[in-house]
Amino acid sequence: MDSATGSNLTPSSKALSEDDKVLVRDTWREATKPEREAGQKLFKRRVLIFQIAPEAQDYFSSSDLESDEFQGHITSVISTLDKALQNLDDLTPLLPTLERLGTIHANMGIKRQQLNVVKQALLFTLSQELRELFTDECRKAWELTFDILADAMATGMVANSNDD
Ligand code: HEM
Predict the structure, then answer these.
(1) Under a CB-based contact definition with an 8 Å cutoff, are residues 111 and 164 in contact?
(2) DSSP strands (E only) in the chain
(3) 146: which of 4, 37, 78, 124 is 20 to 30 A away, CA to CA?
(4) Residue-wise burial string across 79-106, b where 16 or more C-beta atoms lie within 10 A, e elsewhere
(5) Is residue 92 in some structural domain?
(6) 37: how many CB neighbours lie within 10 A of its CB?
(7) For the Globin domain, which residue ranges apply (predicted)?
(8) Residues contacting residue 84 through CB under 8 Å, at least 6 positions apart
(9) What is the mean pLDDT, run by run of 10 residues, along the chain of 164 residues?
(10) Which ligand 1 atom minimizes the distance to the CA of 110?
């Protein structure tokens, strides 16, 4: 499917085309516009995260999907994504933050591959929100965007992991 392994790809080596950037930014704006309440609604399909990967639940102290911790994480993910989308032309300024974020996750035992749980939830939610706007081209642009973000996080995971 995708090559989402902890490769040595740098964010810039997976460059998005200008068309991809426009697509991703436009559809994010559409999916998260206030009328849709999607800032929170997005990822409130959170149950899916645990349906895709029940073991993801192990990383949170409570299995309560309404817990402040879990809801707070949804907000954290969205805000990280939002910042990345504002910096799609040049992610360099965000790299230290993303790397540190990767290290934080690696320290909790989370592997690069597990970040794709969020990718699946994101793609699913966007497809539900955007319906016919979520074309194949749009999906591909989003997949690439997520991979760039997750690969940037993975640089902090690789640097920190000696356990396998
Ligand atoms: C690309 C995907 C993800 C992003 C952008 C993301 C983002 C974040 C951020 C910004 C934080 C707060 C870090 C800090 O303390 O400064 C965080 C913490 C955390 N993340 Fe993630 N995360 C992702 C994927 C995951 C996945 C897949 C899991 C579980 C399987 C997970 C579990 C946690 C946990 C348990 C914490 C600590 C508690 C909390 O702050 O909510 N994350 N994440």
Answers:
(1) no
(2) none
(3) 37
(4) ebbeebbeebeebeebbeebbebbbebb
(5) yes
(6) 11
(7) 15-158
(8) 91, 94, 98, 145, 148, 149
(9) 41 77 93 68 65 83 81 86 92 95 96 92 87 95 95 85 48
(10) 30
Sign of CA dihedral 155, 121, 79, 148: positive
Amino acid present at 138: C
Is 13 part of any domain?
Answer: no
Protein residues whose CB sits closer than 6 Å to any atom of ligand 1: 56, 59-60, 69, 72-73, 76-77, 80, 101, 104-105, 108, 110, 114-115, 117-118, 149-150
Closest CA to 142 of 16, 18, 38: 16
One-letter amino acid of 127: S
Q: How many domains does the chain have?
A: 1
Q: Domain range for residue 82?
A: 18-160
Report the alpha-carbon distance of residue 150 to residue 63 in Å, rounded: 24
Q: Can you give the CATH number for the domain in which 98 is found?
A: 1.10.490.10
pLDDT reported for residue 37? 64
> Can you give the pTM of this predicted structure?
0.85
